[in-house]
Amino acid sequence: MHFQRITLVHYHELGLKGHNRATFEKRLMRNLEVLLEDAPVHEITRISGRVLVVYDAAAGADAPAKAAQLIARVPGVARVSCGFASERNMDDICEAAHQALGEAGDFCTWKVVGRRNHTDFPIDSMQINQIVGEHLCGLFPDKKVKMKGADVEVHVEVVQGMAYVYAQTVRGVGGLPVGTAGKVVCLLSSGIDSP
Predict the structure, then answer these.
(1) What does the alpha-carbon distance between residue 158 and residue 192 come to, in Å, rounded to a whole number?
(2) Which pLDDT tens digit goes with each residue over 96-114?
């Protein structure tokens, strides 16, 4: 089965900025658009506290991983996850999880981290973990499930009419996006009458 390739861009500090949050998110998105203008990107949009990068159907299988290395160096990015967009049904989600775990590289232990953001999806986060975990156990019988400190975490996020599944994550530089800081003037002096 073929799934739409995506990258989820996660951030931390932006969420702390209250009324300025939308401004910071928009600046981060503009910075990403400039960075990825030559990449095979179909769309960059905001979803549920993240930035979603959707790739063209003709993009190669390695396009998200290459883009993730670039995105991770953008100030404001906490981490970048490469994965797949899936319809919100458990058969598709399980197959996307299979593909995501299959691309995760070498690992001995793994676990599933399910998250349901909208209650209109009838299966809760714990059930997502159980269903996807059972499916993956049958496909990777030589690998062990480990709840703490697993080599690979397969994330399943059910949000806004779609499910996003990923296992590959690259750490970003964090901080705030370029262009969001104000201007500061400072005078330094060592004289006793400086104040």
Answers:
(1) 62
(2) 999 999 998 899 999 999 9
